[in-house]
Write a structure and sequence with these properties.
CATH superfamily of the largest domain: Response regulator
Radius of gyration: 20 Å
GO molecular function, one term: DNA binding
Strand order of the largest sheet: 2-1-3-4-5
Organism: Romboutsia lituseburensis DSM 797
Protein name: Stage 0 sporulation protein A homolog
Structural class: alpha/beta
CATH class of the largest domain: Alpha Beta
CATH topology of the largest domain: Rossmann fold
Oligomer: single chain
Distance between the termini: 24 Å
Helix content: 25-40%
Strand content: 25-35%
Low-confidence stretches: none
Largest sheet: 5 strands, parallel
Pfam family, one: LytTR
Number of helices: 6
Number of strands: 15
Order of helices and strands: EHEHEHEEHEEEEEHEEEEEH
Keywords: DNA-binding, Phosphoprotein
């Protein structure tokens, strides 16, 4: 059973999306509908897929998604929007996809297919690190950043901070292919776990504040924009 919710303050859009999802024949589905972010948040229970309007009265889709993501790390959030310039919306929420209004049945069904595919096929990548605590295996998504400090390299993860037996330059080279980049000579950070960038401060998902040096700023912003654009393009392919 696939559990899907639609949240949109335009009744006609809400009803159209619901009708399209009801026509999806490949899997048994339950559908919930909400007319506002407040209503969704108040009644939220674990979902597989959430189609979420960005521009709503009251709490908008971006803020709603942040609250929902805190409750449910696995739900596939698909933004529905009137705007073509939505790259900034990818910050802080890990949106699975984007649909531009007015949408068609094929757009909705494509994203449902993609979400189901990820549910069955997505395997979290795990890497091994040689630390002072011994060999540890860490899920890439759980790594926030590496920091060179007091002649040691610290690896900040979701549950623990490890000391790594490697040079920060070697770690940067190793982690580049996994979407880690350098905002400052003392840091290598996960682009997946970037929440926002304000001036020369990089805000991470765990609340950490990472300095962005002027020297690294241009390349860092290029890497981040490329990463976000690739995520959006991947969500639109089909």
């Amino acid at each position: 059973m696939l559990k899907i919710a639609i949240c949109d303050d335009e009744k006609n859009v809400l009803n159209k999306a619901k009708e399209i999802i009801e026509n999806y024949k490949n899997k048994e589905i339950t559908i919930e509908t909400y007319c506002s972010g407040e209503e969704l948040i108040e009644n939220y229970s674990k979902l597989d897929i959430l189609f979420l309007d960005i521009d709503m009265k009251g709490i908008n889709g971006i803020e709603t998604a942040k609250i929902i993501r805190a409750k449910d790390k696995l739900v596939k959030i698909i933004y529905v929007t009137n705007y073509t310039d939505y790259t900034s919306s990818a910050f802080g929420v890990h949106a699975f996809g984007y649909i531009l209004k007015p949408f068609e049945e094929k757009d909705i069904h494509h994203h449902i297919n993609e979400a189901i595919s990820y549910m069955y096929e997505e395997v979290d990548e795990v890497l091994e690190f040689n630390t002072t605590e011994g060999i540890v295996r860490i899920n890439l998504k759980d790594i926030y950043y590496f920091e060179y400090k007091l002649r040691k390299v610290l690896m900040k993860t979701k549950d623990y901070t490890y000391t790594i037996k490697q040079k920060i330059s070697d770690i940067a080279n190793r982690m580049e292919e996994y979407n880690f980049t350098i905002p400052h000579k003392s840091f290598v950070i996960s682009l997946y776990n970037v929440k926002s960038v304000k001036g020369y401060d990089v805000h991470m998902m765990d609340g950490s504040l990472i300095p962005l040096s002027q020297k690294k700023s241009t390349q860092f912003r290029h890497n981040l924009n490329s990463y976000l654009s690739n995520k959006i393009e991947k969500s639109k392919r089909g």
